[in-house]
Design brief:
8-stranded mixed sheet; alpha/beta; Rossmann fold; 223 residues
Length: 223
């Protein structure tokens, strides 16, 4: 079901000011990479702290919490739906979270904005599994996305993935392996494991309340 457009959305987005950076490109087929809009991350955050990124931040529950817990790490939260992103941005502003900014747009555009080898960790929390095989290339762990991430990640950087979808999880493991990532800390039932420090997302709350297991892994990139 498509979410109803929020009332006063444009004005609310405007009120978020420079907390949101818009990744707008005319090439809807993502065939060209224009690096003229590359962000100067140290200027954007006003420091040289490590930068971590979440793709598909939704309403921002995870991004806001992890940024608050780690004030010495800068966070970029990516979301392509303005209708959802505005809630995340407003929450960050209300909580005065200074080490978190948002990118609005599709993950295919990331190389136009994020410098190479600049991201120390990447989070993929409950990405859409696109269950139909014909839509496999839209999955955020498909090899076409992993190749983008590899160019943005620093050597030794990790991708942390969580999902409730077993088939998507198996697909992700296969894709990570084929792209040369080393997989570690795999959990087939996160909430019944001894893992510490988990930050629960809005989707995670819903799925776990239904008794669904949460799958989690870490994939390490080595050049």
């Amino acid at each position: 079901m498509r979410m109803r457009r929020k009332k006063g959305l444009e004005e609310r987005l405007k009120n978020c000011g420079n907390k949101i950076i818009y990744m707008d490109r005319e090439d809807r087929n993502f065939q060209s990479i224009d690096t003229s809009s590359l962000l100067r991350l140290h200027e954007l955050f006003g420091n040289d702290n490590p930068v971590h990124m979440e793709i598909g931040c939704g309403k921002g529950q995870f991004a806001c919490e992890i940024a608050k817990r780690n004030p010495n790490i800068n966070y970029i939260a990516v979301e392509k739906s303005s209708n959802v992103l505005v809630t995340a941005c407003e929450a960050a502003i209300e909580q005065d979270i200074k080490n978190l900014i948002f990118l609005r747009g599709a993950a295919e555009y990331l190389e136009c904005y994020i410098p190479r080898s600049s991201i120390g960790r990447l989070y993929l929390n409950f990405s859409c599994p696109f269950p139909k095989k014909s839509y496999a290339s839209h999955r955020l762990t498909h090899h076409r996305f992993l190749q983008i991430y590899k160019r943005l990640l620093q050597d030794g950087a990790e991708i942390h993935q969580k999902t409730d979808n077993m088939h998507f999880f198996e697909f992700s493991i296969e894709q990570f392996s084929q792209e040369g990532f080393v997989i570690k800390n795999v959990s087939l039932d996160l909430h019944n494991s001894d893992f510490e420090g988990n930050i629960v997302t809005e989707y995670e709350e819903r799925f776990s309340s239904q008794g669904l297991p949460i799958y989690r892994l870490e994939a390490v990139y080595k050049e």
